[in-house]
Amino acid sequence: MLQTPAKRNPAFLVVLVVAIVALLAAAAAFTAVLVRPGTGFGMVGAAYGPGGFGAGMMGGAGGGSNSSEPGTSGFVAGTAAAPRAIRVVAGPGDAFSPSSISVARGETVTFVVTTAGPIVHEFMVGPADAVAADQPGTPEVADVGMMQTKSVTVTFDGPGPYAFACHQAGHYEAGMRGTITIVG
Ligand SMILES: [Cu+2]
Q1: CA of residue 163 to ligand 1 center, whole Å
Q2: Is the whole-model pTM more than 0.70?
Q3: What is the spatial distance between Cα 27 and Cα 8, in angstroms, rounded to a whole number?
């Protein structure tokens, strides 16, 4: 009777130690992925250049001085030579995240669009009326498949208003669109 707890405790301790070691190893591996320079967002697996991304849904190790919103301290507006990158996730479902984006008047922005989920999406961006009408010639990336990333660069030097949308069949009608607010 007295030996039972003595026999069980060492076994329990071994299991516990193994579990802790495994957790530490997993955490170390995960950290290594996050801090590896240039990889940005694990699954997406692309380097997004200077500035990186600090505000994406999936978090990320990009950061950098160019990740804050227009009108906040530390904000650096994109230029034609060095566009500001804004990450957009299309899906899952007929939605973009974020669905509202602020840009500085006149700045150049590269939208880095990744599809989450199995449905193919597009990302059209420009003057709101052209986007609503799916007008040919409006900047867009089409056929962005699951976990694919495509980029489109736009300069917001017109009067606005601006918007973005997906015109895959039924998506716009289901609400797959967003607004762009010009700041300044
Ligand atoms: Cu879509």
Answers
A1: 15
A2: no
A3: 29
